[in-house]
Amino acid sequence: MDPKTPAGTLQASAADASLLHELVEYLRENRGELRELWAQRIGDAELLGVMTADEIFSEVTAVYDNYVDALETGSIETLQEYARSLSERIIRRGVETHEVLGIVLLLRDVLGRSLLDKYGGDRDLLERILDAYEPAANRIAVIVGVSFVEERERVIREQQVAIRELSTPVLQVRERLLILPIIGAVDDRRARQLTEQLLGAIQSHRARVVVIDITGVASIDVTVANHLVQTVEAARLMGASAVITGLSSKIAQTLVDLGVDLGMLTTVGDLQGGLEEAERLLGYRDAEVEPADDSEA
Amino acid sequence: MSVAILRTGDYLVASIQSDLSDPEVLALRDELLERVGRLRALGIVIDVAALDVIDSFAARALCSIALTAKLRGARTVVVGVQPDVAIAMVHFQLNLEPLHTALDLDEAVALLERETRRKRPDGG
Q1: Residue B112 belongs to a domain with what CATH number?
Q2: What is the pTM of this model?
Q3: Which of A196, A200, A237 sits opposite B81 (nearest CB)?
Q4: Residue A184 gets which letter from DSSP?
Q5: What is the pLDDT of residues A16-29, one digit of tens each?
Q6: How far B120 CA lies from chain A's nearest CA (Å)?
């Protein structure tokens, strides 16, 4: 192990160092040719379909240079940084994991073949060159692949947070009347979060009635159904009545089939009916509707 | 015991200021029930807004106060349950149905007035 090699770098034994140096020289000399071959192989394999040939070529150049640098210096930080920023750019354009792994492995293939061509005459030397080259190349492939996946996960996490924040508004429609429209899939975690938000809003708005509208929920499971019942009960303990509206026939059927205890729930068919019920609970009386006689005349 | 029991009109108001030990909860129950009889109260308001925790023992005691007081002619309303406390109480799986609840003291008194007016045709 080269004592000057800092931690977190590609490992190369002292014997390999000179070979690796030779290898790097070779890759530098043939940069143009190998780069084009690689880009061509990417095109043939129909990878990176969302990018133009020029874009692919410029990324290929950058990756190639970083790759050779990483082989030479043993330092992976620059390559890692580049892989991360590359991932950030291409993820937004819809590049898939298999494409990224594919192009990295193609580069490995291209370089491996070219080494075979050059050193094929000397079997022994070829073996030693490959011994030096392969671990480093594999390590680089792993770094690029992992960077891509990590970046993707980061984007997914960000989006999850954004969706969670957007997903559950608690709206005040009248003095002491709140609406909680629930849209989309409800899992255990979201159900818990909905409960917390609703109870918090009951306290801060001094709500006496809350209408929970689940028109936008396609289906719920037994955990979520029980959670809904518990939320209604918790709201009641705080002194607020809950009215549930917009149960689809499918959900209603599910609740009955699951045997969820629905005795506590006040349910109304749609949101309009729910608001009317809520206003009745709040003590508003229906305005007498004047018969529209004169408009008909 | 850190519970002040006040009387206002026909109602008793018990304001719990800090977490109660189990014996204190029982003492509160006995005290309230005794006063309901002595003062001929029609309603009890128990304010738990200051409590961050209501354990299952206290929750059961509140139910028991509500049921017993009802037998002696008084309605019980619990006010000021905090969101976290409400969630925790629901998870005890107790039957909390006997417990009437309201958001605050005003609401509780309004609720009691609606409930007790029915029992006194001349009142209200």
Answers
A1: 3.30.750.24
A2: 0.60
A3: A237
A4: S
A5: 677 778 888 888 88
A6: 22
